[in-house]
Amino acid sequence: MSGFFKRAIFLIPLLFFVFSSFALAVTEDECRQRQQKDIDDGIACWQQLLNEVGQKKATLQSEIVKFNTSISLTLAKIDQTAKQIKTLETEIVGLTTQITKLDVSLNQLSQILIKRIAATYKKGKVEPLSLLFSSVDFSEFVSRYKYLRVMQIHDRQLMVQTENVRTNFEDQKTLKEQKQDELQVAKRKSESQKALLAQQKAAKENLLQVTQNDEAKYQQLLAQAKAQSAAFRKFVADQGGASILNNQTKCDAWGCYYNQRDSQWGNMLIGLSNSRMADEGCLVSSVAMVAKHYGKNITPADIASSPAAFSASTALMRKDWSDKSITVSRKGFSPSTDKIDSEINAGRPVIVGLYGSYSYPEHFIVIKSKNAGAYIMNDPFLENGADKPLTDKYNFSNIVRVDVVTIN
């Protein structure tokens, strides 16, 4: 066999891997075309594409495609919400016009009905016998009596008509109020979607900046994220698992205690990853507690839903990140009572990593104060883990890193 054929046979599997590893059932162009025809079908297409990309081998190219697809999906949802808002606004204008007409009709019918009730009341005072004797003859009596009966029937019909208009008027007012509530919900949804879009674009730019379009750097970042995830999951496994808890949030003058397993966000995924808050959300919850202490109205759910806080589509929190009205910066130090004491004496809580290594702690907690020589912690994993002495669960020797956190 010639050298050419040998090389060709060797390259076939490689080429197959290159092309098949990124072969997708749907394409971006197909999704755009489907979106133009039907927004709901377009959203379904983008979601399908995103799911397929997520199942491919993690490479820098696949990560960029994943970001682009996520951005396109969010843009499609923004378009869908905008159309919903426009439809609701049109319906509300139509209902307002209809209500105005019904209001005029109701006023007119009410005035007519009032006059008819007064006239009927006066005529109703005439007894049939008096009507008979006041008539010239029997024929006139019959005619006058029939007239009274017709007017009574007409009055009843007028009353029914007025009641129907009044009921329709009230129904339309209620429907308008419902549509106005739906409009406010849709507007808030639109704001949230636009914020997510900004976060996704920022996360993509951060990915490109960090990796400098270098596959090796991306794989290094991915390895770091996997190592941190493994460390978190080891801690959870050692604790017997991460069951969901209820009613864990507690707020006071210091701020708020948040638990990563709280039912409010325990099942949320972190950033664009597949990592669950209950399993890997100790750092997210700790940062949220420190931020709340500094007066920021933020919860673990807010951070977990922000792709800008994490590296690429992983759950690895960046050292420095900004989103909406908050900027977070963490600087790590080796374990030191002097460092911890200097921070908490100045009213600045610290986040400490436990077990594992300096680079990949297995768990994070907040040390908020010191009382009679004992450090007081907020542990985001323990049930009702607020204001507990550190030594109730851990030893100082378990601390592998001290993070000084700056919140702006």
UniProtKB/TrEMBL annotation:
The keyword Coiled coil is assigned to this record: yes
Coiled coil regions, renumbered to chain: 169-228
Signal peptide coordinates: 1-25
Alphabetical list of Pfam families matching this protein: CC_PcsB, Peptidase_C39_2
Family annotation (InterPro entries): PcsB_CC (IPR057309), Peptidase_C39-like (IPR039564)
Location of the Peptidoglycan hydrolase PcsB coiled-coil domain: 99-170
Domain Peptidase C39-like: 257-380
Gene source species: Candidatus Shapirobacteria bacterium CG09_land_8_20_14_0_10_47_13
Domain of life: Bacteria
Keywords associated with the record: Coiled coil, Signal
UniProt-recorded name of the protein: Uncharacterized protein
